[in-house]
Automatic annotation (TrEMBL):
Domain of life: Bacteria
Species whose genome carries this gene: Venatoribacter cucullus
Listed Pfam families: UPF0149
Protein name, entry field: UPF0149 family protein
Length: 190
C-alpha cells in the first residue's frame, strides 16, 4: 500500500487544460472527450498488455488532428502525467477514483460515467484475447458494471432490467471503482 498523499496528480490547471483541449477536439471531430480518454487509459494501464501513450492517440483521435503542434505536445505531456497518476492509484490497492459522478441519471445526453466506461471498454476490446486469457468468467464478472455503464451492451436483456431499476443502476455504477482495482490485481498477479 502506498501513501495516497504521495500519488502524483495533475494540478487543477493541468486537468482543466487537458479537459478543454480534449473537449475542443471531440467537438471538431468525433473523438474521445476527457472522460472517455481517461477510461481508455485506465483500461490500457490496468490491462495485461504493456501500456503506451501512442495507443491513446491511435484509438481516441481522428488521424487529422485539430491540435496545433504545441497543443499536441501539451496533450501528450499531460497524458503521460495522467498515466502515472492512474498507475499509482492502481498500485495503491484503494478503490479507483473514477473522475466523475457514478450515476447514469444525468441531464446530459451522455453522462460522464457512460463516456468513461465506453472508453474503458474500448481499451478492453482492443486487447480482448489477452484480457480473457487467464480467467474469462472472473474477468467478465468484474467487467460487468463497466459494461453496463458503457451503454455498449444495452440491447442485452439483463442490461435493460438494470436500467428499469434506478437503485440497481446506481448500485451497479457504484461498483466500478472496486471492479477496476480487482481487474488490475487479477491481470497483474504473478
Amino acid at each position: 500500500m502506498s501513501d495516497l498523499n504521495s500519488i502524483p496528480s495533475l494540478s487543477e490547471d493541468e486537468l482543466e487544460t487537458l479537459g478543454v483541449l480534449l473537449e475542443d477536439e471531440a467537438e471538431r471531430q468525433d473523438s474521445f472527450d476527457f472522460f472517455a480518454v481517461h477510461g481508455l487509459m485506465t483500461a490500457l494501464i490496468a490491462g495485461p498488455v504493456e501500456f503506451s501513450v501512442q495507443q491513446i492517440w491511435d484509438c481516441a483521435f481522428d488521424e487529422q488532428l485539430g491540435f496545433s503542434k504545441a497543443e499536441q505536445e501539451q496533450v501528450n505531456s499531460l497524458l503521460l502525467k495522467l498515466s502515472k497518476e492512474i498507475q499509482a492509484w492502481l498500485d495503491s490497492g484503494q478503490d479507483f477514483p473514477v473522475p466523475c459522478d457514478l450515476t447514469l441519471l444525468d441531464d446530459e445526453d451522455e453522462p460522464p460515467v457512460e463516456s468513461w466506461a465506453m472508453g474503458f471498454m474500448t481499451g478492453v476490446l482492443l486487447q480482448e484475447e489477452q484480457w480473457y486469457a487467464r480467467n474469462e468468467e472472473t474477468v467478465a464478472q468484474h467487467l460487468f458494471p463497466i459494461m453496463y455503464a458503457s451503454g455498449l451492451f444495452m440491447d442485452e436483456p439483463e442490461m435493460a432490467d438494470i436500467d428499469e431499476d434506478v437503485d440497481l443502476s446506481n448500485q451497479m455504477c457504484a461498483n466500478i471503482p472496486a471492479a477496476v482495482v480487482e481487474l488490475y490485481l487479477m491481470l497483474h498477479a504473478e
